[in-house]
Amino acid sequence: MITFVDELKNIASGRDFKQKLLCLMAAVVLWAYVGSTRTGEIKLRAPVEMRNLPASLIVENSHDQFVTVRLSGRQEDIKLVNAKNIRAYVDLENAVPSDEIRYPVELVKAGIPEGVRVDLSREKMLLSVQRKLMKRVPIVVRTAGDPKEGFILGGSRVLPAYALVSGAESRVREIEALYTKEINVDGQSRDITKEVRLDVENNSDLSVDVQKSTVFIRLLDVRGLLRAEGRARVRNPDERYEYRPAAETVVVYLKPLHDGETTEGLVMDVSVDPGTLAMADFHDAGADPAIERLCPVSVILKNRQDDFRVMHVLPDSITIKIKKKTPGPEPR
Questions:
Q1: CA R_g for the chain
Q2: 0.90 surpassed by pTM
Q3: pLDDT for 240-279, tens place per residue?
Q4: Nearest CA to 252 among 272, 234, 235, 270?
Q5: Structurally, how many domains does the chain consist of?
């Protein structure tokens, strides 16, 4: 029986051994050459950077902006390339405020072999560039549940009471207040002091300088008290200005000083006093300047002072938006 070793000896002793060896070597060289010239293609997803944007502007839709980069060439060259070799960017040095404009996407290529071709899925990107606006807005406490029977939510305080919001002008103008995460007051009868995060999940496109606030919530015992309502008026208004209170109806809790008392026929004077105003107060340089003032609520019993004592006023302060009146047309 002829073994594999014997077969090799026969081949080596044959007169065509050299020719066979040369053919084998040529086949190996050809195989290596063909392997090295195989072409391929890969695709990379690259984030697009916003460069040279003036400080007074902002790109409203700059989040989640990507382009697909297609690389083609010899496989051995392509294997040397990864996402770190590619940087995509848009130069916004000459950007102007506009809803939508197409800006060229440019590439920075580092360490890419010469024979590799680089193509972009899109050469221009649609961007909305707006003026950047900063605005100071109040932080409002949000609660969930009901206090213990016989108790009600009194006034709440937040520290800090305001947050500075910045972002695209159209978005910032929509924001009138920021809210805390919900605070559970169900079954509570004691005042609450708690540090709470702001609920900014729906405003991820905006910058907010406050992430947490310390909240103080009063729980008022109204057992045995009588409830009355009054309409708040602005005391000593200046005729040159318009006053818009955030709330007009005030709830007053009264302690009866005699058994069987009712609030029938009771007259109350409920008022807020924004104080004196000057044009220097209106620092907003916009076309419709306005300011806000937080004014304490004053309640005076106009009659039956011997029958009741004022215990709680809700709200105990009201924010008033004050605007300069627009002058009407001059009479002819």
A1: 38
A2: no
A3: 889 999 888 999 999 999 999 999 999 999 999 998 776 6
A4: 270
A5: 3
